[in-house]
Amino acid sequence: xxxxxxxxxxxxxxGYATRRPERPPPKIKDPLLSANAVHHQIAPxxxxxxxxxxxxxxxxxxxxxxxxxxxxxxxxxxxxxxxTSTRLPPRIQKPQNQPETKLTDEQIEEIRRLRTAxxxxxTRQKLAKQFGCSPAYIPMVAPLRKAETRKALARxxxxxxxxxxxxxxRKEMVVAIRKKRRSLW
Length: 185
Prior knowledge:
The chain is mainly alpha-helical. Helices cover 34% and strands 6% of the residues. Strand 1 and strand 2 form a beta hairpin. The N and C termini lie far apart (81 Å).
C-alpha cells in the first residue's frame, strides 16, 4: 500500500529563533535578611545589624591560635646574647664578608696614585682586595678619565672579539638573532 505524498512543509515549523534568550534574574540572597543576623534598634530610624561569620574559626589558625607566632611579643633587636638570638628565624641571605673599613686619607691618596699610574695593572678588584674595601668604592674615590675609560673598554672589546672568533656557527646565529630582537625593542 502506498502512502500519499505530502507536498509542502507544515505551517508550525520554524528554523530560527524569534527572540533573544533572557538571562534569569540573579538569585542573590539579601545578607540583611539572613536567619542568624541579629537586629538591634538603636534609634527609631537607625538599626544595627550584626551578622556572625559563616563558620567558626579553626583552632589551627595561625592568627587566632594562642601558640601562633603572630601573637608572640615582638622579638628584641639581635645582640650578642645567645638567649635572644635563639628566638630569631634563620638568616635568608648569607652575611657579606666585605669588611666595612674606614680608609684613611693616605690610603685614598695611594689608591688614586696607583689607579692613575696604571689602571690596567691596578684594577678595581685588585685595589679593593689590597685595601679591604668594596670594588664599587674604588671608582668613587679614584675615577678614571674618559680617555682611559674608553681605552679600557676598547681593550675589553678586543678581548671579547678574540673569544667570539672561536664561536661556532650556531652560537653566532643565536647571538645575531638576539641582537636583532633587542634592536626591535
